[in-house]
Structure formats: structure tokens, C-alpha cells
Amino acid sequence: MAKLDEILDKGTKAGLENMTAPRHPGSMAIINYKGGVGKTTLSCLLGYYLAQETKKKVLLLDIDPQCSLSLALGFNPDEVSKTELTIFNLVIPEKWTRITKTDFNKYVFPPKDSLAPKNLGIIRGAFDIDMLDIEIAKTLARGGQHVEQLHLYCKQMLNHFEDEYEYVIVDCPPNKMFLTQAMLRACAYYIPVTIPDRISVYGMPRLLRWVREIEPSSKPKMLGYVLNALNRSGGHPAGKVTSQQAAERRLERDIAASLEAVERDVLGSDAKLGELPRLDVIARFLSEEGYKWSRMEFKKATSMQKTVDQCLIDLAELVIERMEAYRAKA
User: Fold this and answer.
1) CA dihedral 167, 129, 214, 138 (to 10 degrees)
2) How far is the C-alpha of 152 from the C-alpha of 99, rounded, in Å?
């Protein structure tokens, strides 16, 4: 594999495109082209449960300008906005040619939530991350640097953490900004998440088309989709109200039509990865200031359905199972 310095000395886009870089084998992007569907909810809770259930180290990356993941882990807005140790300063164009000189570890912080797993870390978001697109566009317009350098940098950044962190979860914003595209290419896998309603599922076909357009060498594999904010119906065997069942059927058709052969082999006849109910306990965990996570609350049963705790255990186990299945076929 060519060295980055050799490629950059040539200063050619072709050279960058021909350069390959390994991806972190446990990296996944949580994504949808629609906002408000539960990307941060899933990123946060999946991170907690992978850390708890596997006892392995898990790293979270917050690249959404709203910084919801950082706030959910207990960081206050002033603390996030005033530090230089955020995702913004980690991926600015000046960093792209300084992979070997960047101390990635100093950007990783433990959650402020005192009850969070001790083997969980986060690279915090930045409220001005959406301005990064302007900085990148200016840099590209001046020439001398290519967007492929950003893609390569993000791959190597995530891969830097392979020895220390078993899993890396990237909470993506609902847009196609440069960093979102780079992180999607940098991750080995992606997990679309949506609320199963008529409006929310419209974002999924756009996301799937977007993924299909990624060059084969950088295209992540789907681990399956997650349904968030289910309105449970205890009397129905599917556990969902009628309107949500209809939305899920449409979602399944869209996803089935987009899968590659290896994804169909791994996901089988059911591409769904898991479900999260619409419950106050989840809303309080993510948004109530000073609220501390309590797994005991997640274990409380409601309406004869699976508890939140069991939903997340099942989801984490299936993530691991499908990753292993993909690796077996590599």
C-alpha cells in the first residue's frame, strides 16, 4: 500500500483515488437523510449496550451540528462550544496531511454521565461543524487538496482506534455535507434508522440511492435498519399500530430492492436489525437535564411487550452477529 506522504507529494487526484486504506472493522455510521428519526437515540443507546454487554471499549463520534449526542452524554453546551478538542478541529483541512502528527487520543473524552459504562468514550461534536463545509469548499477551490484526502484521512482516523476500541459508532446528520460523506465511506457498516410513519420513511430511498453511488471500494455494508419510536399495540401480534405496519412494509420493499448480493446473504429475508419503542424513559434519558441513566428503568415491562432493555440487548447481539457474518464472507 502506498504511503500517504508519497501520494501527497505527487499531488494528483488519480494517485489518491488509487490509494487504499483499511477501515476500522467495527465501525458503523448511524444515518438517514431525514432528521428527527432517532439517529442520536440509537447511537447513544447502542453505544451504552455494546459497551455493557461485550465489556469491550466503544467510541462514539458526534458529527451532527446539533451536538445532541454530546449533550446526551452529559456535556453542557458551553463546554462543547468553547473547547478546541472537538470533531471540527480534528477534521479541518489543515489536518488532512498531518495524519502521523495528530494525537487523535486527546480528542476522546469519557461521558459526563456518571452511570455511563466506563469503557465508553466520545469525540465530541461542535455547533459550528456545518461551517466546515465552507472551509472545505474554499480549500478545494484553491486547489492542491482533493476531497479524496478527506475520505482517506477519515478512514485512517477511525482505523487509528482499532487496537483500543472494538466498536466505533458515528452519529451522522441528515445531510450530505463533506464530513457526512467522508464518514460514511470511512465506516465498514451503516445502520439506517427511521420512525415508521408515512413522512419519515421517505428519507430512506434517498439515503439508499446515495449509498449506491459510492465507489465499490468505499461502500459500507448495511447491518440492517432500525425502527424507532414505535407506538406499541399490545393486542396486535406485530406489536405495532396499523399505520406503522404499512410504513414498514414500504420500507422493506425499498431496502430489499437496494441490497447487494452479500447483504442479502447476511441479512436474509428480514433486514430489520431492531426496534425501539416510544416511551418516556427513553425521552428522559436523552433530554432531561441532570437525568442519570438507570438500566433498571429500561427493564420495566409495559403492555406485555419486550422491555427497552431487552430490545437493546437483542439489537447489540444482532449487530455483532451480522458483523461476524460479513467478515466470514470477506
Assistant:
1) -140
2) 10
Cross-strand pairs, 184: none
Instruction: Kindly report, residue by residue over 284-308, the tens digit of the pLDDT.
Output: 877 766 566 677 888 888 767 889 9
pLDDT tens for residues 128-160? 888 998 999 999 888 878 899 999 999 999 999
Reported as a single tens digit per residue, the pLDDT across 61-110 is 999 999 999 998 989 887 777 778 999 999 999 999 888 889 999 999 99
- Unique residue bearing C-alpha cell 452511570: 115
Question: Under a CB-based contact definition with an 8 Å cutoff, are residues 165 and 17 in contact?
Answer: no
Residue extents of the structural domains in the chain: 4-9+21-329
The CATH number for 4-9+21-329, chosen from 3.50.50.60, 1.20.950.20, 3.60.130.10, 3.40.50.300, is 3.40.50.300
This prediction has a pTM of 0.91
Determine the Cα–Cα distance for residues 237 and 252; give it in Å rounded to an integer: 18
Going by pLDDT thresholds of 50, 70 and 90, the confidence category of residue 198 is confident
Burial string for 213-230 (b: 16+ CB within 10 Å, else e) reads eeeeebebbbbbbbbbbb
Cell 437535564, located at residue: 289
The alpha carbon torsion through 89, 95, 96, 98 (nearest 10 deg) reads -150
Classify burial at 141, counting beta carbons within 10 Å of its beta carbon; exposed 0-12, middle 13-18, buried 19 or more.
exposed
Question: For residues 267 and 274, what is the distance between their CA atoms, to the nearest angstrom?
Answer: 12
Can you name the residues that pair with 169 across neighbouring β-strands?
A: 28, 60
